From TrEMBL:
Source organism (scientific name): Paenibacillus hemerocallicola
GO-annotated biological processes: cellular detoxification of fluoride
GO MF terms, alphabetically ordered: fluoride channel activity; metal ion binding
Domain of life: Bacteria
Family: Belongs to the fluoride channel Fluc/FEX (TC 1.A.43) family.
Protein name listed in UniProt: Fluoride-specific ion channel FluC
Function: Fluoride-specific ion channel. Important for reducing fluoride concentration in the cell, thus reducing its toxicity.
Length: 131
């Protein structure tokens, strides 16, 4: 049964990722970075950090629910394959500085937001507060 929940959550995550891409189209034209992928990976890093550090427990998610949300939704919402392909495209277009900047911004931003999600989840769990 868990496979069904992960699959449903995965479909929802993919739909949200697609919607984010549509919403960010106007920003992408003004910036030199693939904005939708960056925002999805940032918010997904934060969500996964928060969920893994107590957020899922505070939401009273069962183990099945936690796995569905983290592996299914967040897994399909974040897009390392898109990040990789977009970086290669920037390199092939001769946009070396943009490609290297995108890699560094993605890496450090994702790490920072995962850390922030973990810290917020830990603090809320320690306080016993509602997340």
């Amino acid at each position: 049964m868990i496979y069904i929940y992960v699959g449903i959550a995965g479909v929802l995550g993919a739909l949200c990722r697609y919607a984010a891409g549509l919403a960010a189209n106007h920003l992408a034209a003004a910036l030199w970075l693939p904005v939708a992928t960056l925002l999805c990976n940032y918010s997904g890093s934060f969500a996964l950090g928060w969920l893994s550090s107590g957020g899922a427990a505070r939401m009273r998610l069962s183990d099945t629910g936690r796995i569905a949300v983290t592996s299914g939704f967040v897994g399909s919402y974040t897009t390392f394959s898109s990040f990789s392909a977009e970086t290669v495209h920037l390199l092939q277009s001769g946009e070396i500085v943009a490609a290297l900047s995108y890699v560094m911004i993605s890496l450090w931003g994702g790490l920072l937001l995962a850390w922030l999600g973990i810290k917020i989840g830990e603090r809320k769990a320690a306080e016993g507060g509602v997340v």
